[in-house]
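Quick log. Single chain, no ligands specified.
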Amino acid sequence: MAALAYTPTAFATSLHSTARVLPQSRALPADAPRACARACPPSRSARGLPQASALSSSRSHAPGALIAAAAAAAAPQPQRVCRRDLVRVAASVAAEAAAQSEGKGANKSREKRSWTWQRANGQPSIEINYVVYPTSGSDPPESLVLFLPTFSDVSTVDEWDHVASDVAALPPPSSAAGGRQVATLDWPGFGESERPALEYTATIMEDFVVDFVNFIGANRRVVLVGAGHAPVAALKAVADGRLKAAGKGGSVDVQAVVAVAPTWAGPLPIVFGHTEQMRPRYAIFRSLVRSPGLGWALYRFALTSPRNMRQQYLSHVYADADNVTPSLLDARTGITRRPGARFAPASFVSGLLDSVKSREEFVGLFAGAEDAGVKAYVVASKGSPRRSKAEMQAAKGAPGVAGFLEVEGALLPHEEYPIQTSEAVKGILGELKA
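-> predicted structure:
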């Protein structure tokens, strides 16, 4: 599971909200923009919401029963505004202003670029958004640090901006005759990259990271730093021999993969499992979200409604509720309003972007990387959800894991606690002399 993940409780609440909204949305055209009233934030944390036990125990339910159980389990939550809420909002705004004054805003010196991903076998090309930072040392640079955002509704190059800016400001590596380049990207179907109505799969994402690294990292030493599912896709490509270390026959020299708060199972599979029984049900969920009209409304008014976005951030995306500010939620909700925004997240939530299907396969990727001559590091988050944290901890001491560190945060520690994450990443780069 990675940010933005739909927990059983939040998913149930979302469906309840949809049940109230959809009857009023008659003759809704496909993907038509439609204004919706933004509900006031609930006066208590999502951690305090009642658990949707009917949904959590519904492994044997048919999809219709699953959705019905979810809707029945989600009683509407009373909303009120009190002095405590106003004080917390004021404190959050003040904290955010202070953080921005310390340099957590987007780096204005970075350069936004576009690359056309020419896919194999005549498949339609996809326009990719990526960002490069000023090169340290001589140009052209001989090393590259590429930051990979999470797979999620709110995936964006901006989530890595503070860490990437810190790394870009480092002096060039002593072992390099040239300089160091730092870059980050938006995955196909996410962020500001093109979002065609594909059925996105783990294979598509693995193909993409291989092609992009070969494009931007040709004839360079490369370190990949990713969060959530992203480093797992990269590790799978390394273990399969498609991204290679020096002397292994590739055009790039992949030195290491750094996995920050890594996850390998989408929000539904991490709860209900990757079983033969559940996969057809995930496919039905995916079809619902992808469908014209109904899918657009389900995604907009339920899964990514302002209220649900706030609940997700409070429950597992961020560790500290004071960091979940109104402006942050506005910016991240805006990402979900882009044309075609629902297609890739539909695959992520239902497990179609999972490169592995079990903990054993996940842990085995590190040994596979070691066999390929690529070092692998794990930076786990202390406040991640119980299931996700268990998967991160499973990598501790596993064969092929060159280093295991922990930082504060939940599923987006690099965005919520960028200074800690930056120090961890810079320490690893120092060890690698990258």
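The CA atoms of residues 168 and 182 lie 6 Å apart.
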